[in-house]
Amino acid sequence: MFADLPHALLVDVARKAIALEPADALAKAQLLAIERQRRLLQPVINATGVLLHTNLGRAPLPDTKHTDQLFSSTIRASNLEFDLQTGTRGSRRTHASELLAQLCGAEAALVVNNCAGALVLVLSALAQGKGVLVSRGELVEIGGGFRIPDVLESSGARLVEVGTTNRTRLADYASAMDRHGRESIALSLKVHQSNYRIQGFTEETTAAELATLGLPVVADIGSGLLDERLPWLADRSGKTPDLPWLRGEPGAKQSLASGADLIVFSGDKLLGGPQAGVIAGRRDLVEACAKHPLARALRPGGLVLNALQNTLLAYLRNDARSLPFWDMATRMVEALQRRAESIVSAVADVKCTSVAMQSVPGGGTLPDRSIDSWGISLSGNRGGALRSYVDVPIVARTASGKTFLDLRTVDPADDTVLVDAIRVALTAKPSNSEAAPEHGGDDGGE
Ligand SMILES: *Cc1c(COP(=O)(O)O)cnc(C)c1O
User: Fold this and answer.
1) What's the rounded Cα separation, in Å, for the pair 162 and 185?
2) CB of 142 sitting under 6 A from ligand 1
3) CA-nearest residue, atom 2 of ligand 1
4) Considering Cα of 237, then 242, then 248, then 252, what sign does the dihedral take?
5) How far is CA 294 from the centre of its chain?
6) What is the 267 CA–ligand 1 centroid distance (Å)?
7) Are the C-beta atoms of residues 439 and 395 closer than 8 Å to each other?
8) How many angstroms separate the CA atoms of 159 and 151, rounded?
9) Phi, psi (rounded to 5 degrees) for 360
10) What local confidence, expressed as pLDDT, does residue 142 receive?
11) Which residue among 112, 134, 146, 221 is best mutated to probe the pocket of ligand 1, counting the most ligand atoms within 8 A of its Cβ?
12) How much of the chain, in percent, has pLDDT values that exceed 70?
Protein backbone atom coordinates (compact mmCIF):
# COMPACT_ATOMS: atom_id res chain seq x y z
CA MET A 1 0.00 0.00 0.00
CA PHE A 2 1.33 3.38 -1.03
CA ALA A 3 0.47 6.65 0.67
CA ASP A 4 -2.10 8.74 -1.14
CA LEU A 5 0.40 11.06 -2.82
CA PRO A 6 0.39 12.84 -6.20
CA HIS A 7 2.16 10.93 -8.97
CA ALA A 8 5.05 13.41 -9.14
CA LEU A 9 5.91 12.83 -5.47
CA LEU A 10 5.63 9.03 -5.86
CA VAL A 11 8.07 9.19 -8.79
CA ASP A 12 10.61 11.04 -6.57
CA VAL A 13 10.14 8.40 -3.90
CA ALA A 14 10.58 5.54 -6.38
CA ARG A 15 13.81 7.03 -7.79
CA LYS A 16 15.21 7.52 -4.31
CA ALA A 17 14.29 3.95 -3.30
CA ILE A 18 16.00 2.44 -6.36
CA ALA A 19 19.13 4.50 -5.71
CA LEU A 20 19.26 3.65 -2.02
CA GLU A 21 18.16 0.00 -1.99
CA PRO A 22 18.07 -1.50 -5.48
CA ALA A 23 17.69 -5.02 -4.04
CA ASP A 24 14.53 -4.20 -2.14
CA ALA A 25 13.27 -1.06 -3.85
CA LEU A 26 9.57 -1.77 -3.41
CA ALA A 27 9.71 -2.08 0.37
CA LYS A 28 12.01 0.94 0.58
CA ALA A 29 9.66 2.98 -1.62
CA GLN A 30 6.75 2.15 0.66
CA LEU A 31 8.68 3.40 3.68
CA LEU A 32 9.80 6.56 1.88
CA ALA A 33 6.26 7.26 0.68
CA ILE A 34 4.98 7.10 4.26
CA GLU A 35 7.78 9.40 5.41
CA ARG A 36 6.98 11.83 2.60
CA GLN A 37 3.30 11.78 3.49
CA ARG A 38 4.10 12.53 7.13
CA ARG A 39 5.93 15.72 6.18
CA LEU A 40 2.72 17.18 4.73
CA LEU A 41 0.63 19.50 6.88
CA GLN A 42 -2.17 17.43 8.42
CA PRO A 43 -4.44 17.15 11.44
CA VAL A 44 -3.07 15.46 14.56
CA ILE A 45 -4.57 14.61 17.94
CA ASN A 46 -2.91 16.68 20.64
CA ALA A 47 -2.70 14.42 23.71
CA THR A 48 0.24 16.34 25.21
CA GLY A 49 -1.83 18.32 27.71
CA VAL A 50 -0.29 21.54 26.38
CA LEU A 51 -3.39 23.58 25.50
CA LEU A 52 -1.63 26.01 23.15
CA HIS A 53 1.17 23.89 21.72
CA THR A 54 3.15 26.08 19.34
CA ASN A 55 4.48 23.04 17.47
CA LEU A 56 0.92 21.75 17.04
CA GLY A 57 -0.53 25.02 15.73
CA ARG A 58 -1.47 26.62 19.09
CA ALA A 59 -5.23 27.18 19.51
CA PRO A 60 -7.25 24.51 17.69
CA LEU A 61 -9.97 25.91 15.45
CA PRO A 62 -13.54 24.65 15.46
CA ASP A 63 -14.38 21.80 13.14
CA THR A 64 -16.14 23.46 10.19
CA LYS A 65 -18.77 20.72 10.32
CA HIS A 66 -20.09 22.33 13.50
CA THR A 67 -19.89 25.97 12.51
CA ASP A 68 -22.60 28.08 11.04
CA GLN A 69 -23.08 27.52 7.30
CA LEU A 70 -23.01 31.25 6.70
CA PHE A 71 -19.54 31.48 8.15
CA SER A 72 -18.11 28.25 6.84
CA SER A 73 -14.39 28.42 6.20
CA THR A 74 -14.69 27.36 2.58
CA ILE A 75 -15.16 30.82 1.14
CA ARG A 76 -14.85 31.10 -2.61
CA ALA A 77 -15.32 34.74 -3.64
CA SER A 78 -15.89 37.07 -0.70
CA ASN A 79 -16.33 40.76 0.05
CA LEU A 80 -12.78 40.86 1.42
CA GLU A 81 -12.25 44.36 0.01
CA PHE A 82 -15.62 45.13 -1.48
CA ASP A 83 -18.38 47.29 -0.08
CA LEU A 84 -21.65 45.42 -0.68
CA GLN A 85 -23.66 48.53 0.15
CA THR A 86 -22.15 50.81 -2.49
CA GLY A 87 -20.70 48.26 -4.90
CA THR A 88 -17.31 49.95 -4.73
CA ARG A 89 -13.93 49.06 -3.32
CA GLY A 90 -14.03 48.39 0.42
CA SER A 91 -11.45 47.67 3.07
CA ARG A 92 -10.34 44.40 4.60
CA ARG A 93 -10.53 46.25 7.88
CA THR A 94 -14.30 46.40 8.04
CA HIS A 95 -14.99 42.87 9.27
CA ALA A 96 -12.73 41.28 11.90
CA SER A 97 -11.03 44.56 12.85
CA GLU A 98 -14.30 46.28 13.71
CA LEU A 99 -15.46 43.35 15.82
CA LEU A 100 -12.12 43.34 17.62
CA ALA A 101 -12.35 47.03 18.42
CA GLN A 102 -15.78 46.48 19.89
CA LEU A 103 -14.68 43.50 22.00
CA CYS A 104 -11.58 45.30 23.31
CA GLY A 105 -13.35 48.58 23.96
CA ALA A 106 -10.94 50.23 21.50
CA GLU A 107 -11.53 53.10 19.08
CA ALA A 108 -9.98 51.08 16.24
CA ALA A 109 -8.10 47.86 15.49
CA LEU A 110 -5.89 46.39 12.80
CA VAL A 111 -5.08 42.73 12.11
CA VAL A 112 -1.68 41.52 10.88
CA ASN A 113 -0.01 38.11 10.59
CA ASN A 114 1.11 37.60 14.18
CA CYS A 115 1.92 39.49 17.35
CA ALA A 116 5.59 39.82 16.42
CA GLY A 117 4.51 41.51 13.18
CA ALA A 118 2.12 43.75 15.12
CA LEU A 119 4.94 44.99 17.35
CA VAL A 120 7.31 45.57 14.42
CA LEU A 121 4.61 47.56 12.63
CA VAL A 122 3.72 49.66 15.69
CA LEU A 123 7.36 50.54 16.36
CA SER A 124 8.11 51.24 12.68
CA ALA A 125 5.07 53.45 12.29
CA LEU A 126 5.26 55.33 15.57
CA ALA A 127 8.89 55.35 16.66
CA GLN A 128 11.20 55.26 13.65
CA GLY A 129 14.28 57.38 14.37
CA LYS A 130 13.11 58.06 17.91
CA GLY A 131 13.60 56.64 21.39
CA VAL A 132 11.38 54.03 23.03
CA LEU A 133 11.39 53.68 26.82
CA VAL A 134 11.49 50.04 27.99
CA SER A 135 12.06 48.69 31.50
CA ARG A 136 15.20 46.56 31.89
CA GLY A 137 12.91 43.94 33.39
CA GLU A 138 11.03 43.67 30.10
CA LEU A 139 13.88 43.39 27.60
CA VAL A 140 12.99 39.80 26.91
CA GLU A 141 13.20 37.07 24.33
CA ILE A 142 9.64 35.92 23.77
CA GLY A 143 10.52 32.71 21.93
CA GLY A 144 12.10 31.54 18.73
CA GLY A 145 14.69 34.32 18.91
CA PHE A 146 12.10 37.14 18.98
CA ARG A 147 13.97 39.62 21.18
CA ILE A 148 12.58 43.01 22.16
CA PRO A 149 15.91 44.90 21.71
CA ASP A 150 16.35 43.40 18.21
CA VAL A 151 12.77 44.16 17.23
CA LEU A 152 13.27 47.77 18.29
CA GLU A 153 16.47 48.05 16.32
CA SER A 154 15.00 46.49 13.18
CA SER A 155 12.10 48.93 13.36
CA GLY A 156 14.52 51.85 13.27
CA ALA A 157 13.66 52.86 16.83
CA ARG A 158 16.23 53.53 19.54
CA LEU A 159 16.02 51.53 22.74
CA VAL A 160 16.14 53.64 25.90
CA GLU A 161 16.63 51.27 28.82
CA VAL A 162 14.91 52.24 32.04
CA GLY A 163 15.33 51.08 35.66
CA THR A 164 16.72 47.69 36.64
CA THR A 165 15.88 44.05 36.02
CA ASN A 166 13.76 43.67 39.16
CA ARG A 167 12.59 47.21 39.86
CA THR A 168 11.51 49.97 37.53
CA ARG A 169 9.63 52.96 38.94
CA LEU A 170 7.76 55.79 37.28
CA ALA A 171 10.55 58.16 38.34
CA ASP A 172 13.02 56.05 36.29
CA TYR A 173 10.91 56.59 33.15
CA ALA A 174 10.59 60.32 33.90
CA SER A 175 14.32 60.79 34.40
CA ALA A 176 15.14 58.81 31.22
CA MET A 177 12.77 61.07 29.35
CA ASP A 178 14.43 64.20 30.76
CA ARG A 179 17.92 62.87 30.09
CA HIS A 180 17.23 62.12 26.42
CA GLY A 181 14.95 65.07 25.79
CA ARG A 182 11.22 64.67 25.67
CA GLU A 183 10.98 65.41 21.92
CA SER A 184 13.33 62.56 21.06
CA ILE A 185 11.17 59.92 22.76
CA ALA A 186 8.27 58.47 20.74
CA LEU A 187 6.56 56.25 23.30
CA SER A 188 6.94 53.94 26.24
CA LEU A 189 6.60 50.21 25.69
CA LYS A 190 5.40 47.67 28.24
CA VAL A 191 6.01 43.98 27.51
CA HIS A 192 3.96 41.43 29.41
CA GLN A 193 6.05 38.84 31.25
CA SER A 194 4.35 36.04 29.40
CA ASN A 195 7.07 33.41 29.33
CA TYR A 196 9.10 34.21 32.44
CA ARG A 197 8.64 35.53 35.97
CA ILE A 198 10.77 37.81 38.09
CA GLN A 199 10.25 36.94 41.73
CA GLY A 200 11.36 38.42 45.03
CA PHE A 201 11.74 42.14 45.56
CA THR A 202 10.19 43.44 42.39
CA GLU A 203 8.43 46.59 41.29
CA GLU A 204 7.00 47.46 37.93
CA THR A 205 5.26 50.57 36.63
CA THR A 206 1.71 50.10 35.41
CA ALA A 207 0.34 51.41 32.11
CA ALA A 208 -1.87 53.80 34.14
CA GLU A 209 1.22 55.32 35.81
CA LEU A 210 3.09 55.50 32.50
CA ALA A 211 0.16 57.36 30.96
CA THR A 212 0.85 60.27 33.33
CA LEU A 213 4.12 60.95 31.47
CA GLY A 214 2.19 62.30 28.49
CA LEU A 215 3.77 59.84 26.02
CA PRO A 216 1.76 57.20 24.14
CA VAL A 217 1.87 53.91 26.07
CA VAL A 218 2.10 50.74 23.96
CA ALA A 219 1.54 47.42 25.75
CA ASP A 220 2.50 44.04 24.28
CA ILE A 221 0.05 41.86 26.24
CA GLY A 222 0.91 38.84 24.10
CA SER A 223 -1.61 36.21 25.01
CA GLY A 224 -4.78 38.00 23.95
CA LEU A 225 -7.15 37.46 26.85
CA LEU A 226 -9.99 39.77 25.79
CA ASP A 227 -11.50 40.45 29.21
CA GLU A 228 -10.14 39.43 32.63
CA ARG A 229 -13.72 38.87 33.89
CA LEU A 230 -14.27 36.05 31.35
CA PRO A 231 -17.90 37.10 30.68
CA TRP A 232 -18.17 34.57 27.84
CA LEU A 233 -17.94 31.73 30.38
CA ALA A 234 -20.80 33.00 32.57
CA ASP A 235 -23.62 30.60 33.36
CA ARG A 236 -27.31 31.60 33.44
CA SER A 237 -26.92 33.26 36.83
CA GLY A 238 -23.95 35.27 35.57
CA LYS A 239 -21.40 33.26 37.57
CA THR A 240 -18.07 32.56 35.85
CA PRO A 241 -15.90 29.52 36.65
CA ASP A 242 -12.76 30.09 38.71
CA LEU A 243 -9.69 29.46 36.55
CA PRO A 244 -6.82 30.12 38.99
CA TRP A 245 -4.17 29.51 36.31
CA LEU A 246 -5.39 32.63 34.44
CA ARG A 247 -5.01 34.94 37.45
CA GLY A 248 -2.89 38.01 36.76
CA GLU A 249 -3.11 37.66 32.99
CA PRO A 250 -3.83 41.14 31.57
CA GLY A 251 -7.08 41.55 29.63
CA ALA A 252 -7.15 43.56 26.40
CA LYS A 253 -10.13 45.54 27.68
CA GLN A 254 -8.58 46.24 31.07
CA SER A 255 -5.21 47.21 29.56
CA LEU A 256 -6.82 49.83 27.36
CA ALA A 257 -9.14 51.05 30.11
CA SER A 258 -6.26 51.45 32.53
CA GLY A 259 -4.21 53.74 30.31
CA ALA A 260 -2.53 51.89 27.43
CA ASP A 261 -3.01 53.87 24.21
CA LEU A 262 -2.30 50.83 22.05
CA ILE A 263 -2.10 47.12 22.74
CA VAL A 264 -0.78 44.25 20.62
CA PHE A 265 -1.57 40.56 21.09
CA SER A 266 -1.70 37.18 19.33
CA GLY A 267 -4.82 35.70 17.74
CA ASP A 268 -3.93 32.07 18.45
CA LYS A 269 -3.22 32.07 22.18
CA LEU A 270 -5.91 32.84 24.79
CA LEU A 271 -8.15 34.40 22.13
CA GLY A 272 -8.50 30.88 20.70
CA GLY A 273 -8.45 31.97 17.06
CA PRO A 274 -6.17 31.55 14.03
CA GLN A 275 -2.58 32.78 13.85
CA ALA A 276 -2.85 36.57 13.71
CA GLY A 277 -1.59 39.67 15.44
CA VAL A 278 -3.87 42.41 16.69
CA ILE A 279 -3.19 46.12 17.15
CA ALA A 280 -5.97 47.92 19.03
CA GLY A 281 -6.45 51.26 20.74
CA ARG A 282 -6.43 54.97 19.89
CA ARG A 283 -7.74 55.64 16.39
CA ASP A 284 -4.98 58.07 15.34
CA LEU A 285 -2.26 55.57 16.34
CA VAL A 286 -3.98 52.59 14.67
CA GLU A 287 -4.43 54.67 11.49
CA ALA A 288 -0.75 55.60 11.51
CA CYS A 289 0.06 51.86 11.62
CA ALA A 290 -2.45 51.06 8.86
CA LYS A 291 -0.91 53.71 6.58
CA HIS A 292 2.67 52.47 7.01
CA PRO A 293 4.02 50.51 4.00
CA LEU A 294 4.79 47.52 6.25
CA ALA A 295 1.06 47.13 6.94
CA ARG A 296 0.63 45.97 3.35
CA ALA A 297 3.43 43.44 3.77
CA LEU A 298 2.01 42.08 7.01
CA ARG A 299 -1.65 41.90 6.08
CA PRO A 300 -3.48 38.60 6.58
CA GLY A 301 -5.47 36.82 3.88
CA GLY A 302 -9.17 36.16 3.67
CA LEU A 303 -8.93 32.66 5.17
CA VAL A 304 -7.40 34.00 8.37
CA LEU A 305 -9.75 36.98 8.56
CA ASN A 306 -12.69 34.63 8.11
CA ALA A 307 -11.55 32.29 10.89
CA LEU A 308 -10.83 35.29 13.12
CA GLN A 309 -14.26 36.76 12.41
CA ASN A 310 -15.92 33.45 13.37
CA THR A 311 -13.93 33.43 16.61
CA LEU A 312 -14.98 37.00 17.44
CA LEU A 313 -18.63 36.33 16.61
CA ALA A 314 -18.57 33.48 19.14
CA TYR A 315 -17.41 35.96 21.81
CA LEU A 316 -20.06 38.49 20.80
CA ARG A 317 -22.72 35.76 21.10
CA ASN A 318 -21.34 35.02 24.58
CA ASP A 319 -20.70 31.54 23.25
CA ALA A 320 -16.90 31.38 23.47
CA ARG A 321 -17.25 27.89 24.98
CA SER A 322 -17.91 26.78 21.42
CA LEU A 323 -14.27 27.67 20.72
CA PRO A 324 -12.12 24.57 21.23
CA PHE A 325 -9.64 26.47 23.40
CA TRP A 326 -12.22 27.56 26.00
CA ASP A 327 -13.87 24.16 25.81
CA MET A 328 -10.55 22.48 26.73
CA ALA A 329 -9.78 25.09 29.35
CA THR A 330 -13.05 24.57 31.24
CA ARG A 331 -13.39 20.77 31.13
CA MET A 332 -14.11 19.36 34.60
CA VAL A 333 -11.50 16.94 35.93
CA GLU A 334 -14.27 14.49 36.91
CA ALA A 335 -15.44 14.33 33.29
CA LEU A 336 -11.87 13.75 32.10
CA GLN A 337 -11.47 10.95 34.67
CA ARG A 338 -14.69 9.28 33.48
CA ARG A 339 -13.45 9.44 29.87
CA ALA A 340 -10.08 7.98 30.89
CA GLU A 341 -11.74 5.12 32.77
CA SER A 342 -13.98 4.19 29.88
CA ILE A 343 -11.02 4.25 27.46
CA VAL A 344 -9.01 2.07 29.85
CA SER A 345 -11.83 -0.46 30.22
CA ALA A 346 -12.32 -0.56 26.44
CA VAL A 347 -8.60 -1.19 25.86
CA ALA A 348 -8.58 -3.83 28.63
CA ASP A 349 -4.82 -4.25 28.93
CA VAL A 350 -2.86 -4.06 32.19
CA LYS A 351 -0.32 -1.83 30.45
CA CYS A 352 -2.98 0.91 30.15
CA THR A 353 -4.15 2.75 33.29
CA SER A 354 -6.08 5.87 34.22
CA VAL A 355 -4.08 8.55 36.10
CA ALA A 356 -4.29 12.14 37.35
CA MET A 357 -1.99 14.57 35.54
CA GLN A 358 -1.31 18.25 35.01
CA SER A 359 -1.99 20.16 31.79
CA VAL A 360 -0.24 23.45 31.03
CA PRO A 361 -1.50 26.51 29.11
CA GLY A 362 1.52 26.56 26.72
CA GLY A 363 2.02 28.95 23.83
CA GLY A 364 4.78 30.64 25.77
CA THR A 365 2.22 31.96 28.22
CA LEU A 366 1.77 31.44 31.95
CA PRO A 367 5.07 29.58 32.43
CA ASP A 368 4.53 28.55 36.06
CA ARG A 369 0.88 27.55 35.91
CA SER A 370 -0.65 24.13 35.59
CA ILE A 371 -4.22 22.85 35.31
CA ASP A 372 -5.49 19.71 37.06
CA SER A 373 -6.28 17.07 34.50
CA TRP A 374 -6.76 13.36 33.95
CA GLY A 375 -5.57 10.96 31.32
CA ILE A 376 -4.03 7.63 30.45
CA SER A 377 -0.66 6.13 31.22
CA LEU A 378 0.87 3.41 29.06
CA SER A 379 3.88 1.38 30.14
CA GLY A 380 6.83 1.80 27.81
CA ASN A 381 7.63 4.51 25.33
CA ARG A 382 4.82 4.35 22.75
CA GLY A 383 5.31 7.85 21.34
CA GLY A 384 6.52 6.67 17.93
CA ALA A 385 3.76 4.08 17.56
CA LEU A 386 1.08 6.64 18.42
CA ARG A 387 2.49 9.17 15.95
CA SER A 388 2.39 6.58 13.18
CA TYR A 389 -1.18 5.48 13.90
CA VAL A 390 -2.78 5.21 10.47
CA ASP A 391 -6.01 7.20 10.87
CA VAL A 392 -4.46 10.28 12.45
CA PRO A 393 -1.12 10.87 14.17
CA ILE A 394 -1.45 11.14 17.96
CA VAL A 395 1.09 13.21 19.87
CA ALA A 396 1.54 12.09 23.47
CA ARG A 397 4.08 12.86 26.18
CA THR A 398 6.74 10.39 27.22
CA ALA A 399 8.69 10.43 30.47
CA SER A 400 10.63 7.89 32.54
CA GLY A 401 9.74 4.91 30.38
CA LYS A 402 6.02 5.70 30.23
CA THR A 403 3.66 7.34 27.79
CA PHE A 404 1.01 9.81 28.93
CA LEU A 405 -2.10 10.89 27.04
CA ASP A 406 -3.76 13.92 28.63
CA LEU A 407 -7.47 14.02 27.81
CA ARG A 408 -7.93 17.76 28.48
CA THR A 409 -6.50 18.57 25.06
CA VAL A 410 -8.28 15.72 23.25
CA ASP A 411 -11.74 16.26 21.75
CA PRO A 412 -14.13 13.69 23.33
CA ALA A 413 -15.20 12.80 19.78
CA ASP A 414 -11.68 11.36 19.33
CA ASP A 415 -11.86 8.99 22.33
CA THR A 416 -12.83 6.02 20.16
CA VAL A 417 -9.82 6.74 17.94
CA LEU A 418 -7.62 6.69 21.05
CA VAL A 419 -8.96 3.28 22.09
CA ASP A 420 -7.94 1.73 18.79
CA ALA A 421 -4.63 3.63 18.57
CA ILE A 422 -3.67 2.56 22.11
CA ARG A 423 -4.46 -1.10 21.32
CA VAL A 424 -2.25 -0.91 18.24
CA ALA A 425 0.52 0.96 20.07
CA LEU A 426 0.57 -1.61 22.89
CA THR A 427 1.15 -4.46 20.45
CA ALA A 428 4.19 -2.68 18.95
CA LYS A 429 7.57 -3.03 20.62
CA PRO A 430 8.19 0.09 22.76
CA SER A 431 11.07 2.25 21.57
CA ASN A 432 13.98 2.89 23.91
CA SER A 433 14.61 6.53 23.49
CA GLU A 434 13.15 9.37 21.54
CA ALA A 435 12.59 13.08 21.66
CA ALA A 436 8.89 13.63 22.17
CA PRO A 437 7.42 17.07 22.79
CA GLU A 438 7.81 17.85 26.46
CA HIS A 439 5.72 20.17 28.55
CA GLY A 440 8.58 22.58 29.02
CA GLY A 441 9.83 22.54 25.47
CA ASP A 442 7.28 24.98 24.18
CA ASP A 443 8.43 28.54 24.59
CA GLY A 444 5.79 29.90 22.34
CA GLY A 445 7.13 32.36 19.89
CA GLU A 446 8.88 30.48 17.15
C1 LIG B 1 3.60 35.10 22.22
C2 LIG B 1 4.02 36.52 22.41
C3 LIG B 1 4.49 37.25 21.33
C4 LIG B 1 4.64 36.63 19.95
O5 LIG B 1 3.41 36.37 19.40
P6 LIG B 1 3.28 35.70 17.93
O7 LIG B 1 1.83 35.83 17.63
O8 LIG B 1 3.76 34.31 18.06
O9 LIG B 1 4.12 36.51 17.01
C10 LIG B 1 4.85 38.55 21.54
N11 LIG B 1 4.77 39.12 22.77
C12 LIG B 1 4.30 38.45 23.85
C13 LIG B 1 4.24 39.13 25.17
C14 LIG B 1 3.89 37.12 23.70
O15 LIG B 1 3.44 36.44 24.75
Assistant:
1) 13
2) yes
3) 222
4) negative
5) 23
6) 9
7) no
8) 10
9) -135, 150
10) 80
11) 146
12) 93
